[in-house]
Design a protein that fits this description.
about 500 residues; 7-stranded antiparallel beta sheet; mainly beta; Jelly Rolls
Length: about 500
């Protein structure tokens, strides 16, 4: 009877390590090492103080929908003006559509840039026209002589200078077409229309809407530089992403957005409207703009940092500036804007052969590491969707517990990628670790979507608690006692 009671007590004691296992043991903690989620940069440029650095991340997508346009309320005369634009289109509209239009007080356009059928075939055409009251309109056309390639980025520069010569320069073909006019352009205070013909009586009658993508638009009011000089300014903009803002009257980019409307970054700060909504899509090619001459102090300014966070899903921004062998980094934890004093930081108000990189990080290295469980959601439209989701997991023992972990437990890591409403793909791994092990999960999903879809990436770690040393010691003692009882069975 006593032996049976002792065995029952020992068996009950077996619950002690089980309780310790379930309550007192520390599970394996899984962390993702901080990583760069996105970087944008500008390289080998001269950076004077008073400059502004901003990212280019998006393009506008015009769908040919009636009344769709971007309207800039620029109120100056159109005399001695140049402008440039970056666009890509299937060129499918007929008979023509406007890429850019500025109208005059007599209902005749002062300057059009459109895809049309005049004067020689279907191609990009620049039309400069005016109508001095009460006489007939003067109209002049610039035609490069060949149709633009479909779905290819085109960068075009146009001016109508003080000698009444109109010029069209296409960067991709290094071609310059010119024609002479007879009268100056008429001063006008009507808005600029991007992506539509806007000379109708009401906004509800905006017609000939552009069908395609637009990266940016810039307009100069320059009375000093010749066309050849301005073409070099234009080339510097396209190749080096630098803009001297001294003579810029309008500069818009779909990244310059404050959650309700787009922003003109020129000194004029002209109001910019989109009616109805013009969609933004992530651009495959991203960079940093350097806008010179916007401020008069010794600082270098940064804006639209939250746009980088939004695109990447990263929380922290790291800015790296390199010049003359000196490299400095700055972490921006919060906020949309940031600035440094170049004189204080680099000892000069101008940096030569400089480079700037802005990175979005998942977390700060060495400042606390991020748990791997997270959800990232982004919206994508009208594109073939190929996603490569890659996470690197670091398995780390819990150094805060006083107990010694002698074995690591099984851990499952599940990566689920879902395109609503069409596809869900889940990848699961079972992983073992004793101390520190790295493993990379790679999941590749390709799907074609003809309409808007939401992509959600969810990474979740599942853990099983581990045995602790006190639990194991108690278990061993109980087993020894049970063994001793077994060996002494039948003995008196």
């Amino acid at each position: 009877m006593k032996r049976a009671l002792l065995i029952i007590i020992l068996l009950l004691l077996l619950l002690i390590p089980l309780i310790t296992f379930l309550i007192n043991s520390k599970p394996l903690h899984i962390y993702a090492q901080p990583q760069v989620l996105l970087d944008v940069r500008i390289e080998n440029v001269e950076i004077p103080s008073g400059s502004l650095v901003v990212p280019h991340l998006y393009t506008w997508l015009f769908t040919g929908k009636e009344e769709q346009h971007i309207r800039v309320h620029w109120t100056k005369s159109y005399n001695t003006t140049a402008y440039a634009i970056a666009l890509r289109s299937p060129w499918a509209s007929y008979p023509y559509f406007m890429v850019f239009r500025r109208i005059g007080p007599y209902g005749v356009s002062q300057c059009d840039f459109y895809y049309g059928s005049r004067p020689a075939g279907v191609m990009l055409v620049v039309r400069v026209a005016n109508k001095p009251a009460p006489g007939p309109a003067d109209a002049y056309y610039l035609d490069p002589g060949y149709p633009p390639p479909k779905d290819t980025w085109i960068h075009a520069y146009v001016d109508y200078n003080a000698t009444y010569h109109a010029n069209l320069y296409l960067y991709e073909y290094k071609t310059l077409n010119s024609t002479s006019g007879g009268t100056p352009l008429i001063p006008a205070s009507d808005p600029l229309y991007l992506g539509a013909r806007g000379d109708q009586p009401t906004l509800e009658d905006v017609r000939n809407v552009y069908d395609g993508y637009m990266r940016w638009f810039i307009l100069w009011d320059n009375t000093k530089k010749s066309t050849s000089e301005m073409i070099e300014v234009f080339r510097s903009l396209v190749e080096g992403k630098t803009v001297d803002m001294g003579n810029v009257e309008v500069f818009v980019d779909p990244t310059f957005f404050n959650s309700t409307h787009y922003l003109d970054l020129s000194k004029n700060r002209s109001p910019v409207y989109h009616n109805p909504d013009v969609k933004r899509e992530l651009d495959a090619h991203r960079w940093l703009w350097l806008l010179k001459g916007l401020y008069t102090d010794t600082k270098l300014y940064f804006r639209f940092l939250n746009q980088i966070r939004e695109v990447s899903g990263g929380k922290y921004i790291r800015i790296v500036i390199t010049s003359a062998g000196t490299s400095k980094e700055y972490w921006v934890d919060t906020g949309d804007e940031f600035s440094i004093d170049l004189v204080k930081e680099f000892g000069s108000s101008k940096l030569s052969s400089a480079s700037i990189t802005i990175e979005a990080w998942s977390d700060k290295p060495g400042a606390g590491i991020m748990t791997v469980t997270r959800t990232v959601t982004e919206t994508v439209t009208h594109v073939s969707l190929t996603s490569v989701i890659q996470y690197e997991f670091m398995y780390i023992t819990d150094t805060k517990t006083v107990r010694t972990t002698v074995t690591r437990n099984i851990t499952q890591v599940v990566v689920s990628v879902q395109y609503l409403p069409a596809t869900t793909i889940t990848e699961q791994r079972t992983l073992y670790s004793t101390q520190t092990v790295k493993e990379t999960l790679v999941s590749t999903i390709t799907q074609t979507s003809t309409s808007e879809a939401t992509k959600t990436v969810t990474t979740t770690a599942y853990e099983v608690p581990g045995w602790t040393m006190p639990s194991i010691i108690v278990l061993i003692l109980i087993v020894i006692l049970l063994g001793a009882l077994y060996m002494t069975r039948g003995k008196k």
